[in-house]
Amino acid sequence: MNIIIIGTSNSVMTESYVSALKIYHQVSNISCGRVPFFYHIKTIKQNIELIEKSDLLIIDHYINDINYYHPRLGDFYLEECKDFYRLLSSLNTNILNILFPIRKKLNSQESDYYNFVKNLSKTNKIPLLDLNKFAFKTENYGDDIHLNRKTSFTVGVSLANNLRTLTEKPVHGGSIKKDPYIIFDSHDIAETNNYQKYDFKNSLIDITFSRCTDQIHLNNRVPCKLLSIGYFLAPSRKEEQGISVLNKRFSFSGNLYLHEAIDSFPSFPGDIRITVLNGNYSNTPSFMGREIVDGPFKDADIVELLAKSEIDLEVNPANRSYYDFELPDLNELLLKFEESLTENKSIAISSELVDILRDLAIGIERLNLDKAYELMKLVKHFRPDGVTINSKIKNYESKLKNH
């Protein structure tokens, strides 16, 4: 299966559920950690042809919203979320919306948003995998909103297994009739303002940014509001970066590529004009109030801006049906993995599941021999006399000893 993932921090962790999916499926992961769903909208628009050629689009967004964005942006964010799901409904491919579990007990506002997202999925016929329904324990978490790597990988094992047996019908008939979203990318910014462009690529991101040194002028014919900004902060930089929008200063926070909501959502009747901060500015808040920066400031490396005009989004929904995606073997996997770590005995699970776990270990041996060895030792508990399993364990032990 050809899978595209647009997610947040649960989808960018190393050795996570994504790693397990890659064993049996072709996966393109275009996720970014600390982002609102505006990043998802931007990414969908930039990659819509690729997405609609895929077999499945996996969406992971609500954790960041429930933990940070919705409490700060309120009802406006809820209205924008409705349009995000309308946009999803128009895509001509199968979609799975994953709700990662939360360790802490939700307050009333968080519960409201959680149920709001679930209802949006149902209303817009976006199939849902709600991991909050499963028996995760405290030790399965890295913190309140992230599963630890081993648990996430186990989720991926179960997800990969169940996706292999899934028969999806072709999705068609979706289209965008009126599109209010406008993306000004680094090419637009550089060309209009005669700025230089630079590329950056690592194992997670591949971006082009425009190094803006003074004023930014963007040609725009319709009234619009700015929703979010993508920027790049090099780890080696010596100065801070920031911009002024309608006389309100914002600093950039974080590291490498971020895509952040512009919390005041400034409106423009036409052309957009932004000033780059240069020099010393004290008490300059970052977007979404994450920190306060004093400077000095120099230049701004901007990847893109997402704006929205005043027209209403109109779509033709694709012929998709809603269902709750189930992982019937996940609780068993979580339990058996825990038991296998604490008990020196054979544990019975289905032969097919043992084959899957064995093949997963073999599939990752070139990428991470330690992880393959650890997984294969767990598999031995399920099939202690397995010829391939025991042979591989000896092979891994020899390689690790000589490494």
UniProtKB/TrEMBL annotation:
Alphabetized SUPFAM superfamilies for the sequence: SGNH hydrolase
Cross-referenced InterPro entries: SGNH_hydro_sf (IPR036514)
A GO term for molecular function: hydrolase activity, acting on ester bonds
Protein name (record): Uncharacterized protein
Organism of this sequence: Amphritea atlantica
